[in-house]
Amino acid sequence: MRTSTKIFLIISIALFIANIFLTKYLLAGIVATGTGFQIVPTALFWVALAGQVLFNIFFGIVFFRFLRTQRLANVIFFSTFPLTLAYGGFLVYVGTVKNMTGVTAESVRATLNIAQETSNNNLLWAGLATIVYLALLFVIILFACRPLSKVEKFTGNLGDGRMKTDDFKVGGTKQFLEIESSLNKINYNIKAKENKIKQTNLEAQKFIPKQFFKFLGKSSVEELEIGNQVKKIATTLFCDLKSAAKNSKSLSLEENFNYINSYLKTVAPLIRRFDGFIDKYLGDGVLAVFSKPQNAIECAHAILRAIEVKNKSQKELPSIDARLCVHTGEVVFGIVGDEERKSPTIISDALSLCNKMEEINMYIDTKFLIAKSTLNELPPNFEFDHRFTGVLTVDEIQIPLYESLCYYPKNKKEKLKKLKNKFESGVRAYNVKKYKEAREIFEYVLKYVPDDKPSYVYFNKATEKMKDAA
Fold first, then answer.
1. What is the pLDDT of residues 167-215, one digit of tens each?
2. Nearest-CA neighbor of 391 among 415, 363, 351?
3. What is the pTM of this model?
4. Which domains, from first to last, does the chain contain?
5. Whether the Cβ atoms of residue 429 and residue 438 lie closer than 8 Å to each other
6. How many CA atoms does the CB half-sphere of 368 hold within 13 Å?
């Protein structure tokens, strides 16, 4: 019990004892005249009246604080019991006052206009008392149960996951304060769990890109199940840093690991910047996926430029000669593994096709090859300089390949653009085994661009074929 409550209780008891002796002076000041009541105040009358008023005030405070410590059922009982007693007593008194004798009874009948013989005003007073009683009963119960509506609202919001507030304020009696405390604990635990899930998802995005969730129509790691899959048209980009392993043999294992990682840390942010995601790290290579082919092409150009800058910035280390290839086709995004280990991946011929394109990359000494399927998916307003470099045959399917010219220095790029048709006619001549014609065309191209490696490779291959045929 609080100290203030103890003080109010002591004052109430003291006033109650005092009123036992003062009540007679209060009653003596109310005189029945037979036709009503007359107030004849004296000094002690006013003292007794003040004592009654003060007692009711302090007792009311103590009683209210008492109710706040009770459970809801007790609150309703203790708050309605005195009212019910008063109501019942009034009904009995109004029903019997007609037959009472004495000056007081006559004064009451005169005040309430209740005739002793025929009047039914006592029934009207009983009806009015009933209305007042029910109204007060409704107000008391409404006030006592008011926190229930808040509890209902809060629990509903918690159930729907729509609660944003940090603390619930229910109010009411001790029982509701306990409920309030429990709701706040539940809310805290839910928020802690949500934060943990968010943190888990943030950590998972380091291993499972958010774009992968988007493709699968999922929002968190918990929703991923083995067998989840969706088929999409997507563009795959293969970035090969294989030359790094070759050039970095002089480095220790730790130095080599950090060396390759330094280049991967350059490539990965660029992939994300162009709205792609990395499906696999392949040692010193990366397989990335893009929903838009133009993003993949722009990303490839950015990677080549970034690696060139990085090579120049660390001359004390071996340079990396990155090669990239891009292909567009049907890809299945899915979850594979078992219940102990789940892994997101793409399932398609993209990796094997990119490996074959990479072989062509190395064969004709290019840096960035693009499949015709990717060019077909580009929007009409997306333009970049490229040239036909040959045909890759996979399972009797011919896949035209094109080399991007955008990574070449400006002067060389302009020359290659002017000689594009000439170069492509040489490739087509070589493909139909017109080696002599092809050799002459590539010789012409090399006359103007001596360091054009694809032309040099085709020139040598055409020469070898002519020797083999002789």
1. 667 666 667 777 777 777 777 777 777 777 777 666 655 556 666 666 6
2. 363
3. 0.57
4. 3-160 (no CATH), 223-354+368-382 (3.30.70.1230)
5. yes
6. 21
